[in-house]
Amino acid sequence: MPTETKLLLTCLVILAAGLVYAVLRVSGAWYEHHVSRHDLVAESKRRRFAYLKAIADRDREMMEAQGAVIIENDEPQLAQAA
């Protein structure tokens, strides 16, 4: 095999290895970005759920502290007024 052919094949192998390396680096960075984004979204959902649960617990405690609230129906009064 002539020297030029060996050099050409060596260059092609180096270019192919560089291309594979570049594709793997880019896809690894893409994967890392999306995993970290997913983790941030999941953490945000957990915090939002904890916040809403704390508000619901606080409201429940306030309702229990105030006692039972009786809501009267206004419809019979409207019927009497007519």
As a whole number of angstroms, the C-alpha radius of gyration is: 35 Å
Distance between the termini: 111 Å
Count of DSSP E strands?
0
- Tally of helical runs: 2
Task: Give the % helix.
Answer: over 70%
Helix/strand-derived category reads: mainly alpha
> What do the pLDDT scores average to?
87
Largest sheet: none
- Please tell me what the overall shape is: rod-shaped
Q: What series of H and E elements makes up the topology?
A: HH
Provide the β-strand percentage band: under 5%
Q: Pick out the low-confidence regions.
A: none
Keywords:
82 residues; mainly alpha
Describe the protein's topology.
Layout: H1 3-66, H2 75-81
Describe this structure in words.
The protein is mostly helical. Helices cover 87% and strands 0% of the residues. It has helices at 3-66, 75-81. The model has no long low-confidence stretch (mean pLDDT 87).
